[in-house]
Amino acid sequence: MTVDVQYYVLLSMAVFCIGLFGVLTRRNALLFLMSVELMLNAANINLIAFAFYHGNLTGQLFALFTMALAAAEVAVGLGIILVLYRNFRDIDVTVPTTMRW
Amino acid sequence: MTTGPKLRLGKTLVPGLLAVGLFGVMALITLNAAFEPMTAAAGAGFPDDVSITAELGYALFGFDELQQIGGTEPFLAAVLLVAVALDAALDASLVLAKREEGGEPVAALSSAGEEASATGGPEPAVTDGGTDGSSAATTDRHTDTGGDSR
């Protein structure tokens, strides 16, 4: 027995909205990064569920590439957080305001 | 100052209502959408006698003639592009991890080596809190707390 596809979509929406909740309410840069990862992985759930739904492997492969890009994003994001801490002694995202318009 | 992932409650959670509302709307749409049941008759799923992992590998490197599940595009160019992107990300993280000591850039992967062990071990990394200039363990080497002067 397989789970119907709308429940996978519902799960991915829940994960995406948890990530969005984190981005909207948190100020710690590390929690920001984690929330963005949740939003990215919500897209992966959809890609894999619909790959199975259509009997096609392209979605699974695309999810692999999304994971690779997420890894690249984390590498750069952690570097930025490192510099943020070095310059401001803090990783609160509301502290650096010089690039705010 | 943020010293840890402290959970902030209260008024800061108000923008989060937007996310909760979005989930409500999207869930309503999904549950009312007409999806076909996930059955083999409707075209879902993969054949039992085919290795999915092998199929993924063939598609990644563009071995079309070896594939048994049809309709998968070759992804060789994308693999190469992602390899370059990951390489660039590694370089970017190394550049971002570089710090300055006395106007000289110090790479994150450099080692003080024997010189440091002779003078009492390496200095604490700036990201570990640094030496703050007040530590008695500082040597005659330049020990600022890192960071650009603002």
Automatic annotation (TrEMBL), chain A:
It is found in: Membrane. One of its GO terms (cellular component) is NADH dehydrogenase complex. One of its GO terms (molecular function) is oxidoreductase activity, acting on NAD(P)H. It is a multi-pass membrane protein. This is NADH dehydrogenase subunit K. The chain crosses the membrane at residues 6-24, 31-55, 61-85. GO terms for biological process: ATP synthesis coupled electron transport. InterPro entries: NADH_UbQ_OxRdtase_chain4L/K, NUOK/Mnh_C1-like. It comes from the Archaea. It comes from Natrinema hispanicum.
